[in-house]
Design brief:
about 80 residues, alpha+beta, 3 helices, about 10% strand
Length: about 80
C-alpha cells in the first residue's frame, strides 16, 4: 500500500507506484482512470484506502467472446 503525507490526486499514486515506468505505453492523458470502478479525473482527490484503476481500451467485442468460448475457440478456456 502506498502512503502519501497529504491528499493526493489520482495521477500521483499511479506515478509513485512505478507502474508507469514499468509500462511506458500507459498514457494517463489518453487512458481513463477510476476509483473503485467509478470513472474519475486525474485531479480527483483521493481518500485513504482508495484504489486507483487505469482502464485499457476494449480489444474484443464483449458480445462475441461468449460465442467463441462456446465454439471452443476462446482464449479464456480453463485448463
Amino acid at each position: 500500500m502506498w502512503r502519501c503525507p497529504r491528499a493526493p490526486r489520482c495521477s500521483r499514486p499511479s506515478r509513485a507506484s512505478g507502474l508507469l515506468a514499468r509500462f511506458p505505453h500507459i498514457d494517463l492523458a489518453a487512458q481513463k482512470v477510476g476509483v473503485f470502478s467509478k470513472a474519475a479525473k486525474l485531479d480527483t482527490a483521493l481518500r485513504p484506502g482508495d484504489r486507483v484503476e487505469i482502464y485499457r481500451p476494449i480489444i474484443a467485442d464483449p458480445q462475441t467472446v461468449p460465442r467463441r468460448r462456446l465454439a471452443g475457440g476462446g482464449e479464456d478456456d480453463e485448463e
